[in-house]
């Protein structure tokens, strides 16, 4: 998923072979600049990153270890914005989340993915409100998604978005739901009508979180629209959808730093399990080619029951592991997502 960026960093690190080789440092930074700009990282972010890395390396002494350390420190700083990371639950349930974004950004699918993650990994009771009554078949799409992931949906094409939201909140409180996700209407462009409707829904919902869903394929446009939504509505997090289709991955590196809002999740595939929490220090570990065992361990622990795993281990030792057990394991593996997203 971050292959292009990882190759860029590895290539730059390999340029520095000897201690106190300032020529090699200049060459490495030049190479890194070229690669990052090619990978769609914003020029201001690139300039700031390289200036800080160069300063830190020269202060501590030119060398591969110091270069790697400086790169990791500054990448973590750039990827981190003030605010929550991952999904944070409100102190008093239900946690209300407003999903906003432009039409075609993958907002409805992302709402389903988030609901699936909360239900399967966090074991929470989730309710979805279909408040997107602008796009044809948006409600029907949500119906199919909710049926697929077995999550309750509040929808009625004959009501207004405000009425749907009120109904969903009342149901959420009465039936003790942990999370209420509200899928709102998008437009092909930012206009006053969209912002007025969002403001009206926001006033009623009083959300704990406002997630802006941005299409990673749009590159720098994703950053600009996120900034506009932040100014006009106020957002608490960004979710990058269709990230698996953006082989460059540069937009993820600058969006939090430029918008000043944390990047919370990344859509890494088309299937429902393909949504990953964006934790800066773990992402830096992946960018440096070290992988992210912590996230994989968390994901596995949430899906595979410890008691069941012990029973299975006993079965294998006694030679009683059968085909049905194998099928159960395959179903558990499916919940982890694609092998590409795991690796």
UniProtKB/TrEMBL annotation:
Q: Which PROSITE patterns match?
A: SRP54
Q: Which residues form the SRP54-type proteins GTP-binding domain?
A: 262-275
Catalytic reaction list: GTP + H2O = GDP + phosphate + H(+)
Name the SMART domains on file: AAA, SRP54, SRP54_N
Any one Gene Ontology MF annotation carried by this entry is: GTP binding
Q: Which SUPFAM superfamilies match?
A: Domain of the SRP/SRP receptor G-proteins, P-loop containing nucleoside triphosphate hydrolases, Signal peptide-binding domain
Q: What keywords tag this UniProt record?
A: GTP-binding, Nucleotide-binding
Q: Where in the cell is it found?
A: Cytoplasm
Q: What is its main location?
A: cytoplasm
| Gene Ontology CC terms | signal recognition particle
Q: Does the keyword NAD apply?
A: no
Q: Name one GO biological process term.
A: SRP-dependent cotranslational protein targeting to membrane
Supply the name of the protein.
Signal recognition particle, subunit Ffh SRP54 (TC 3.A.5.1.1)
Q: Which organism is it from?
A: uncultured Sulfurovum sp
């Amino acid at each position: 998923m971050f292959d292009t960026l990882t190759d860029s960093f590895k290539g730059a690190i390999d340029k520095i072979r000897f201690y106190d080789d300032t020529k090699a440092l200049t060459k490495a930074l030049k190479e890194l600049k070229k690669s990052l700009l090619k990978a769609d990282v914003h020029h201001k972010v690139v300039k700031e990153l390289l200036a800080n890395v160069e300063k830190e390396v020269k202060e501590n002494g030119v060398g591969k270890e110091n270069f790697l350390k400086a790169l990791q420190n500054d990448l973590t700083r750039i990827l981190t914005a003030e605010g929550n990371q991952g999904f944070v639950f409100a102190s008093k349930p239900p946690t209300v989340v407003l999903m906003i974004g432009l039409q075609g950004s993958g907002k409805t699918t992302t709402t389903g993915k988030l609901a699936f993650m909360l239900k399967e990994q966090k074991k929470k009771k989730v309710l979805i409100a279909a408040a997107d009554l602008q796009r044809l078949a948006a409600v029907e799409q949500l119906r199919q998604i909710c049926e697929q992931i077995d999550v309750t949906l509040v929808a009625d094409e004959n009501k207004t978005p405000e009425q749907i939201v009120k109904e969903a909140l009342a149901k959420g409180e009465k039936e003790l739901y942990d999370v209420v996700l509200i899928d709102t209407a998008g437009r092909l462009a930012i206009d006053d009508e969209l912002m007025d409707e969002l403001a009206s829904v926001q006033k009623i919902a009083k959300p704990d979180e406002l997630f802006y869903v941005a299409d990673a394929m749009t590159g720098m446009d994703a950053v600009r629209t996120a900034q506009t939504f932040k100014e006009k509505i106020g957002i608490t997090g960004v979710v990058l959808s269709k990230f698996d289709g953006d082989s460059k991955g540069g937009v993820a590196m600058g969006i939090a730093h430029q918008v000043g809002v944390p990047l919370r999740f990344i859509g890494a595939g088309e299937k429902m399990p393909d949504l990953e929490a964006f934790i800066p220090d773990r992402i830096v570990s992946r960018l440096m080619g070290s992988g992210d065992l912590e996230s994989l361990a968390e994901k596995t622990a949430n899906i595979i029951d410890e008691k069941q795993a012990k029973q299975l281990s006993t079965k294998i030792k006694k030679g009683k592991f059968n085909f049905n057990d194998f099928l159960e394991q395959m179903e558990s593996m499916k919940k982890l997502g694609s092998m590409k997203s795991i690796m």
